[in-house]
Please model this.
Amino acid sequence: MISTKITRLLSIKYPIIQGGMAGVSDSSLASAVSNAGGLGVIGSGFLSSAWLKEEIEKTKQLTKKPFGVNLIMQNPMVPELVKIVIKEKVPVVFTGGGNPLPLFPHLKKANIKIIPVVALSRLAKKMEESGADAVVVEGLESGGHIGKKTTITLVPQTKKMLEKIPLIAAGGIYDAKTATACFILGADGIQMGTRFLASKECQIHEKYKRAVLEATDENVIVVARFTGRPIRMIENKLTKKAQKLAEKNPFPEEIRADRFSSSKIPSGNIDQAPLLCGLCAGGISETKSCKEIIEEIMEGSKEIIKEISKDL
Amino acid sequence: MMLNKDQIKEIIPYKEPFLWVDEVESIEGNTIIGYKYTSIKDPYFKGHFVDLPIMPGVLVVEGVAQTGSILLRKKIGKTHKKKHLLAYQVRSAFFYKPIFPGDKIRYEVKLLGFYAYKIANFKGEVFVGDEKKCEVRFVVAVIDKDEFKETFQGGKKEKSVPQTTLPPLKIGKLFAKIPIIQGGMAIRVSLHNLAGNVAKQGAVGIIAASGMNDPKELKSEIRKARKIAGQKGLIGINIMGVATRFIELVKAAMEEKIDLIIQGAGFRNDIFDLGGKYNVPIFSMASSVKVAKKGEAMGASAIVVEGMDAGGHLGFPKGHPFRKTIDILKEVVKEVKTPVIAAGGIFDGKDIVEMLRAGAVGVQMATRFVATKECDAHQNFKEVHLKARKEDVVIIHSPVGLPGRAIKNPLVEKILKGKAPKPDPKRCEGCIGMICDKSYCILDALEKARRGDVENGLIFAGSNVWRVNKIVPVKDLIEELVTEANEILKNKPLIIT
Model:
């Protein structure tokens, strides 16, 4: 049992959070992570309120441990989704992609913890001042929609600015070494997406999983910069198309954002699908169960710290 | 063929030798298809190039843009004749293959986005037969002819003449003899009778649309106000951006040809789009330079700067310290080009002159207009204004998430103690949706007050309300204010720069 500000806040065993992945992190993945002692998070993305309700209910059947829901603020359905989250008494909500402040009073009243995901230290501070319970800073190493700063700079700089709430690091973390690095930088917890994407319990198509395992730092690229909302994914025919369009200096309206939002790719047609993925995929070579992933990190970090202190 | 050359010339202001669309085949949704016939006899082939006559790329781009402008003018609708459509940016242009004399050029132009009736993004593709010759992305700027004249042709620039009387209010096409806007007071405190009578006197009357839920009610109020105000009177509405039926109310007002709309509490893009469509100026409320600049950027025709001494909701949410009107005003006039109106705590002619000297083009006053015969609120409501002492004016928390200034009464005492009655969920109209924190029902409290229940209702008022001591006709109030201002200006004229 490890005790950090974040394990105490969320009543979890380990300070490891599974990043919300739109449609990908459903009840199977979220419950597996929660059962393994971390915090599983359902990624509501642009999915329907009916989908979210069903996944919350399934998660509750699969685990008695706490779990969270991630909301994307650009989704016009957010008010509907919030109602469900409140009704279902989900313990914690993560927010991304836009301003979450209008949700604060409603979630507070329902006693739901709020953890916004931000990509700048200034915004992290603002979230603290506005009453967030914790904050995730996400570096540009992450998959999907990305910010402009790196995890190694965001974590210590944000830590200095925060007065009381716990800080969660995200972006590029996938094993004991990267996790330990973040704890040393001042994080109270870590959030991982891509590592759990390549977990046994994740329900994406096997071909997508294999693509993550085979990916190197070279073929995980960023597309759609021209929209002002760049997205990181594995290179394929779809990204080539997007790059070709980008050469023409297009208008942001020319790309259909929904075609680039994540999916489980049930058809297995991975050439034309957005294979959202973080830069750390280059370091991930086998699928593991969520329990193995979490325990390896917790065990490994103790070893690493021992080793380092010897050398220093 | 949908449009021939003559029909095209009626829509877009081009003619030979600079018309590069000969016919329009179709306009469907956001796509227009048009043609240009080329001939070896066309004069430009002689010079482009010597010994190699091919269609100049720039002229193809021009043709695409002209075709796009036909579509855009159709989209703008009736008011398009009042606008100039100008080239703003050629974002990219690719010329894949040459076009030769005699080719029939086909333009397929798509409008990708049209923002605030000001900026239009286009993508155009050019074909001869099935062969793609060219691809262009470009941006067109839409600007009011009057604004263009003023900005680029030195139109209406007047020299600064010292003013010895109160100058009129001039904003774009709006003209009011007296530079006073009667502030909109929700809920239903300023309706047709107050607004109509204010407008009749040459100032600007504002009907408060906030708190209304039925566009029909608003339409009827505007009609009645117009009847009182007469032809020249300016009638506007005031509305909160967070109102649930915002768009329907705004549309209803625009259909009634409202002269202006003052919008506060939450920025909305859609109102500027509609303002462009119906040609109605939108005034944005601001309590900081930041918000004022945002309003200007979004296309506001004027900025109403409201400081801490106003009544009702104050634009200083938690973490934003209260500031005086004059201090914000001085900063805002430096940072924006848009005309600025001062509001909040303005009580007499001296205050009006002070604001004009600081750079405001007019003032907005509300509390003083409550104490008029014509104000639409109940007599009890007005009496509370007369009786209020300085110590009775307090700041409360409003469920919309902003502080508000009100006059102390039994309800306010309860609010201050956090013991106000919770809203009845059965009666909740969801007037402002999720923004509401439901600590009490402000809609109900304000409506009760204006109906005369001054015990259980909420009476909003400005910080100077304790100075109000009599109820007068609107005409007398305005005359008093103008006389006071003119007295001062006679001795020390106003220099407008």
